[in-house]
Amino acid sequence: MSEGIGGSLIALGLVFAPLSLLSFGGGNAVIAEIAQQSIAVHHWTSEREFADLFALSRAAPGPGSMLATLIGWKVAGTPGALIATLAYYLPSALLVFGAARVWGRWRGSRWHNAIERGLAPIAAGLFLSGGIVVLRSSPAGWPVWAAAIVTTAALLRWPRLHPVPLLLAGAALFGLLALGP
Amino acid sequence: MPHPEERPGGACLEGRTAPAPSVPSIGLARIFAAFLRIGCTSFGGGTAGWLYRDMVLKRGWIDEPTFLSDLALGQAIPGSIGVNLTVQIGQRLRGAAGAVAALVGLLAGPFAIMLGVGAAYAGFGEHRILQQMLDGVAAAVIGLTLATGLHSLRHSRPGVTGVMLAAATVVCVGVLRWPMLPVVAVLAPFGIALALIQPRRP
Question: Of A5, B52, B104, B197, which shows the fewest CB atoms inside 10 Å?
Answer without folding.
Answer: B197
